[in-house]
Amino acid sequence: MEKPVRRLAACVLAALVGLLVGAPSSQAAGPLRYVALGDSYSAASGVLPPDPAAPPQCLRSTSNYPHVIAAATGARLTDVTCGGADTDDYFEPQYDGVAPQLDAVTRDAQLVTMTIGGNDSSVFINSIVQCGAAGISTGGQGSPCKDRYGSSFQDTIRTTTYPALVRALRAVQAAAPHAEVAILGYPWIMPERGGCFDRMPVAEGDVPYLRGIQATLNDAVRRAAAATGATYVNMNRVSDGHDACQPIGVRWVEPVLQGTNAVVVHPNALGESRMAAQAMRVLGLG
């Protein structure tokens, strides 16, 4: 039996027992208690409108996937997603006046979602920046980024990001022992091959290399979820063909050039809505 089905069955059973003994069911009373954690892909940095309740430096949008999920389910949302967050920011303040994200996770939480890991050790953003710079240096020809960095980015994800994800997920589960904890993978930024040098300044030979780095990151997220019993929301298949090289209305992630978001290489509103839809499908919500 799938987790969401078991959870629904438990809620129904608790409600029936409550009716029989004359006691209210805590699960049946009130909306779903939902806490959203994570980085800029969770916060929808660059997507309008901004969240007036968020610290300005977090660049959080009210169109992020947690808000979409909450609106669709009627959940009571506590959103502490923040652009630039890594797993360390679960345990310590990311900025002055911005509390550790775990402070928002209470024992009565019923659902916790996140996208996290891409900023750990600055590996993923560095790979994009370095591959972009390398691509410009060769006019989009060859594979200068792969030639220079080899497996270094992927090695760091496997040896540093993966255990950090496991630590973060276990901490969330300890803080909210009765919650469904879900971690989303990252939607594809680059296509499998070819690329679009006018919008994403990555050399043609480095397009599969950069996609491979992201595949390694998503696999680390998947493995961390499996190691901790969290729910993994796989974005690989559903986001294929919606990368930053696609036209407006098809792409879920905005390119470096000719994009529509102030924060480049991040999901647009369409991407956030599709991340929400995939999470709800996997979790059995909506």
Fold topology:
Layout: H1 3-21, E1 33-36, H2 40-43, H3 65-73, E2 76-79, E3 111-114, H4 123-137, H5 144-149, H6 152-175, E4 180-184, H7 207-228, E5 231-233, H8 236-239, H9 269-283
Parallel strand pairs: 1-2, 1-3, 3-4, 4-5
Helix pairs in contact: 3-9, 4-7, 6-7
Structural descriptors:
286 residues, alpha/beta, five-stranded parallel β-sheet, 9 helices
Summarize the structure.
The protein contains nine helices and five strands; from the N terminus they run H-E-H-H-E-E-H-H-H-E-H-E-H-H. Helix 7 links the parallel strand 4 and strand 5.
Protein described:
The chain is α/β, with parallel strands linked by helices and about 290 residues long. Mean pLDDT is about 90; it is low at about 1-30. The protein has helices at about 5-20, 40-45, 65-75, 125-135, 145-150, 150-175, 205-230, 235-240, 270-285; strands spanning about 35, 75-80, 110-115, 180-185, 230-235. A five-stranded parallel beta sheet has the order 2-1-3-4-5, with helices on both faces. The relative contact order is 0.15. The chain starts with a helix and ends with a helix. Helix 7 links the parallel strand 4 (about 180-185) and strand 5 (about 230-235). Helices cover about 40% and strands about 5% of the residues. The chain is built from nine helices and five strands; from the N terminus they run H-E-H-H-E-E-H-H-H-E-H-E-H-H.
